[in-house]
Design a protein that fits this description.
This protein has 133 residues and is mainly alpha-helical. It contains six helices and no strands. It has two domains: 32 residues; 99 residues. The radius of gyration is 22 Å and the shape is extended.
């Protein structure tokens, strides 16, 4: 009897945890069969951020942003990739704001969030560009 009660409570708790993880990480389950697309997008971001330039022409890694044009450090590549991802996510959120037809306040929120993401990505990119000298 005790074993049966423990098993039923364990099944309830594990079902609740599994359900909350499925709801919280639902985008991962949707992307399960799309791993090649995710790798493709990550490759585009890595090449756009300058991964090849940072690998071919290694510089002094003590500088976060290397002060000469034409050279860049690995940390600068990561910063550029972050700026690209911010801008791309801002464009996607702007797309979602146009699709939001049932709640106009959410559409406005999405649009403001999108503009902030795009502006932050542009600010980081311009800051890196101006820091190059």
């Amino acid at each position: 009897m005790i074993k049966k009660a423990l098993e039923s409570s364990y099944n309830r708790v594990s079902g609740a945890v599994r359900g909350s993880l499925t709801r919280g990480l639902g985008f991962l389950w949707q992307a399960k069969g799309r791993w090649i697309q995710v790798l493709y997008l990550l490759g585009i971001v890595a090449f756009s951020a300058g991964l090849v330039n940072a690998a071919v022409q290694p510089v002094d890694q003590r500088n976060v942003i290397f002060p000469q044009r034409g050279f860049q450090s690995i940390s600068e590549t990561v910063i550029n990739a972050f700026a690209i991802l911010l801008g791309a996510s801002g464009i996607y959120v702007a797309y979602l704001s146009g699709r939001q037809t049932t709640k106009p306040r959410m559409a406005n929120f999405y649009l403001i969030l999108a503009l902030m993401l795009i502006a932050t990505g542009m600010y980081i990119g311009i800051y890196v560009y101006n820091s190059k000298g």
